[in-house]
Every structure is written in structure tokens, then in C-alpha cells.
Write a structure and sequence with these properties.
Elements: H1 2-28, E1 37-45, E2 51-54, E3 64-66, E4 69-76, E5 80-86, E6 93-100, E7 103-111, E8 113-119
Antiparallel strand pairs: 1-4, 1-6, 2-3, 2-5, 5-8, 6-7
């Protein structure tokens, strides 16, 4: 009788340890790196006019000025992304392309002012 209770107890302990191990293993198998979502941004223009850009990685507070082409990859844990590219020359065509976790997300283009606002999934 005592042997039967010990067997049941040992089986329960093994079951609990197995469940805990499974839960830890499943929670650590995420598609996202520790830094969050990988975001790649490509901004291109058809002229050498200066373009003011904000919302790309660390420059989201201060912005930066680019010419022709700019590419940046960064990690974020935010749920949304807003990028703005602005040029004083109304003939400059600006294109913004965004990839999230190496999957193409969006492409927007226009003259003078181009913005993209997307939810990152």
C-alpha cells in the first residue's frame, strides 16, 4: 500500500516537472528577438534635394536629413510605427518601404511630404 502511494506521488512530481519544462520551452520560442521587432526602413528619392526624416529608429526624436537614399534597420518593442519624410522641392518623389521581421510591410510614395503609419504585428 505504501509502495503504491509512493509510485503515484513520483508520477505526479514527474508530470509537474514536465509541464513546467514544457511551459518554459514554449515561452522561450518567440519569433521576435529579445529587442522586439526587427524593422528595416528604406527611403529613396529621385533628386539630391535634402529630405528631413523622422521616426526611423533612434532618430525618432530629433530627425535627420538625407539625400537620395537612406536605409536603417533597428529593433523596437512598440506596437506602431510612424515615419515622415519631407522635402521643400515639390518635384522630388519620395518612396518609403518598410519590412518587419524580414517580411515586407508597406510601401508609400509621394511628393513633398510622405508619411507611413503602421501597426507592427
Amino acid at each position: 500500500m505504501l509502495n503504491n502511494k509512493n509510485n503515484t506521488f513520483i508520477k505526479r512530481v514527474f508530470l509537474i516537472v514536465w509541464i513546467i519544462t514544457l511551459c518554459i520551452g514554449v515561452s522561450s520560442c518567440s519569433d521576435e528577438p529579445d529587442g522586439g521587432k526587427e524593422v528595416r526602413v528604406l527611403i529613396e528619392a529621385n533628386t539630391d534635394s535634402p529630405i528631413r526624416v523622422s521616426g526611423v529608429g533612434e532618430s525618432s526624436q530629433t530627425g535627420l536629413v538625407i539625400r537620395r537614399k537612406f536605409e536603417n534597420t533597428f529593433f523596437t518593442d512598440r506596437y506602431s510605427l510612424s515615419i515622415e519624410a519631407r522635402c521643400d522641392d515639390p518635384t522630388t518623389l519620395i518612396t518609403i518601404s518598410v519590412w518587419v521581421n524580414k517580411k515586407f510591410k508597406t510601401k508609400v510614395f509621394g511628393n513633398s511630404l510622405v508619411t507611413t503609419g503602421d501597426y507592427l504585428k
